[in-house]
């Protein structure tokens, strides 16, 4: 065994919520309130996967807690790590799924102080967390064509 085995990253799951799965015209961005070094940055709503929890369960739970809505989850936006995850620095790895709201109206209930629907031709209008920019690039390449 290596004397310095790499620590497994903390698993995060998030939703790229679009207005319409078949013909998306807007993406929901959320502005973080914490911690201070990330506050004010925009992100995909979501959060850490609890021990023993599967990704889908974690995603539905986080979106219900944070935005107060139910979602239908579609496919993943593939990143460069195992299982299509995206690196968030070295400590976290995030799975991002395209989703849409099936019940309720999203509100910034927990962890965010503002939500914004970004039109697909205006995806860079907010200051995304730095690790999210390549994900937005992949999202844009897929949906703006
Ligand atoms: N949810 C989310 N987290 C992101 C994104 N981009 C990014 O760098 N992160 C970082 C911020 C955090 O350090 C980490 C995710 O943790 P989190 O704070 O959202 O998780 P959580 O809701 O379970 O938080 P907590 O209960 O532990 O406070 O990933 C993103 O688009 N969405």
From TrEMBL:
One of its GO terms (molecular function) is 8-oxo-7,8-dihydrodeoxyguanosine triphosphate pyrophosphatase activity. Keywords: DNA damage, DNA repair, DNA replication, Hydrolase, Magnesium, Metal-binding, Mutator protein. Its EC number is 3.6.1.55. Signal peptide: none annotated. Its cofactor is Mg(2+). One of its GO terms (biological process) is DNA repair. Pfam families: NUDIX. It catalyses: 8-oxo-dGTP + H2O = 8-oxo-dGMP + diphosphate + H(+). It is an enzyme of class 3 (hydrolase). Residues 8-143 form the Nudix hydrolase domain. InterPro entries: MutT-like, Nudix_hydrolase, NUDIX_hydrolase-like_dom_sf, NUDIX_hydrolase_CS, NUDIX_hydrolase_dom. The keyword Protein biosynthesis does not apply. Belongs to the Nudix hydrolase family. This is 8-oxo-dGTP diphosphatase. It comes from Knoellia subterranea KCTC 19937.
């Amino acid at each position: 065994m290596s004397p310095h085995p790499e620590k497994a990253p903390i698993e995060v799951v998030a939703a790229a919520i679009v207005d319409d799965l078949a013909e998306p015209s807007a993406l929901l961005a959320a502005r973080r309130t914490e911690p201070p070094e990330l506050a004010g940055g925009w992100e995909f709503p979501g959060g850490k996967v609890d021990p023993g929890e599967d990704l889908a369960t974690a995603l539905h739970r986080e979106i219900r807690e944070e935005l107060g809505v139910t979602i239908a989850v579609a496919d993943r936006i593939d990143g460069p790590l195992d299982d299509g995850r995206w690196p968030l620095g070295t400590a976290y790895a995030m799975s991002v799924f395209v989703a849409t709201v099936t019940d309720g109206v999203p509100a910034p209930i927990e962890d965010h102080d503002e939500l914004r629907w970004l039109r697909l031709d205006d995806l860079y209008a907010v200051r995304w967390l730095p690790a999210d920019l390549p994900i937005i690039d992949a999202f844009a390449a897929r949906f703006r064509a």
